[in-house]
Design a protein that fits this description.
Blueprint: H1 3-13, H2 22-34, H3 44-50, H4 57-65, H5 67-72, H6 92-105, H7 112-126, H8 138-147, H9 163-181, E1 190-198, E2 226-234, E3 239-244
Antiparallel strand pairs: 1-2, 2-3
Helix pairs in contact: 6-7
Domain HTH CENPB-type: 80-154
Organism: Phytophthora megakarya
Keywords: DNA-binding
Length: 248
């Protein structure tokens, strides 16, 4: 057993609590490449196989490219600083969220489709070659909205008047109606409503003898066609003749 390997095992049994650290294992491989391997990472494959370690040449080469960071790492580190999975958009998520907020401040509509298109445009400004790896799928948009507390809302109608202005206008309108009511001619005041009259009874049900296998109903094929009928009555209770849009 080499002196270096003995030092590694001693550290694992004492300070490491019996758990071999990734940083320590990386350093042992890199030390072998730097000394016995002559600085050629691929030569370490045979040595690693003899130690019953499951590593390929590509992994060793990747470690060798980052040898300065690995040698500088502490023995207890399980990951290099800045390692781990990166977010799909990184800091550009903040730019996307900012553009959404600014658009809503202008009272402009923001849809899920707009978020996906905007995300692709922002991502393309960083690296056009990586745009194919990010699709801004519907699932990604849903997760983005969930992470940033965004939700789909129906448009609401809000009055721009203050409470005092709203009360003043309501009182003024009621006063106007009260004054006009004294001169109303109720015989000429007509209340009307429009309703649809279908060419056929559109209901699909009919009464039939119990146990019948079929319930056939005649149809002209114009069940969905209709005309608009206007029904009216005066304020005095006199019904007026109905009218339809065909007469117009």
């Amino acid at each position: 057993m080499t002196t270096r390997k003995k030092e590694v095992l001693d550290w694992v049994n004492t300070s490491g609590g019996g758990i071999p650290s990734r940083a320590v294992a990386h350093k042992e491989v890199l030390d072998w490449v730097n000394t016995s391997g002559g600085g050629i990472p691929s030569r370490a494959v045979a040595h690693i196989g003899a130690q019953d370690w499951k590593l390929d040449a590509g992994t060793v080469r990747r470690w060798w490219r980052k040898r300065d960071e690995i040698w500088a790492a502490q023995p207890h580190q399980m990951r290099l600083a800045g390692g781990g999975r990166k977010k799909a958009l990184g800091e550009l998520v903040d730019l996307l969220l900012e553009s959404i907020v600014l658009r809503r401040l202008k009272k402009e509509k923001v849809t899920r489709e707009w978020i996906a298109i905007q995300a692709l445009q922002i991502y393309a400004k960083v690296d056009n070659s990586m745009i194919r790896s990010f699709q801004a799928s519907s699932h990604w948009v849903s997760n983005f909205m969930k992470r940033n507390d965004l939700s789909l809302r129906r448009r609401t109608n809000l009055t721009t008047l203050s409470d005092d202005q709203l009360v003043d206008r309501a009182v003024s309108y009621m006063r106007f109606l009260s004054d006009k009511k004294r001169s109303f001619n109720f015989a000429n005041t007509v209340l009307m409503d429009e309703t649809a009259v279908y060419f056929e009874d559109a209901r699909e049900q009919t009464v039939e003898v119990r146990g019948s296998r079929h319930a056939v109903v005649k149809s002209t094929g114009f069940a969905s066609m209709r005309v608009t009928a206007v029904l009216a009555v005066t304020a005095t209770g006199v019904k007026l003749p109905p009218a339809s849009d065909l007469e117009a």
